[in-house]
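Researcher: Next sequence.
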Amino acid sequence: LWLFRDLLRPIDEATLQRLVEQYAADADSHQRQLFADSLRAALTVDEVGRLAVELGLSPDDVRQTSDRHWTWTTRKH
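Model: Next structure:
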């Protein structure tokens, strides 16, 4: 079983700012910027699903598993 998990790019800037406020409220401005930049650079569930298809795997195995993460669980063939 393989499990991949990473940050999920928010659907809009307002959602991104809400996540930064929620999870980095006690961080300094540099740390908050790093978190925001990481969210902006993250992949969406659809993008990871397309990668799965390119590898001959099911995109249905990629799911949003929190307000800020996607998880892809698959079996090695």
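Model: Residues 2-74 form one domain. Residues 10 and 16 are 6 Å apart (CA to CA).
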